[in-house]
Amino acid sequence: MIFRSFQKCAYILICALFISSCVSISPEEFKSANFGEKPINYEYDIKSLMSRMLKDPQSALYSFGEPKKGMTQDGWAVGGRKYFGYIVQASINSKNSFGGYTGAKRYYFLFSEGNVMEVTSMINSGMGNILE
Question: What pTM was computed for the model?
Answer without folding.
Answer: 0.80
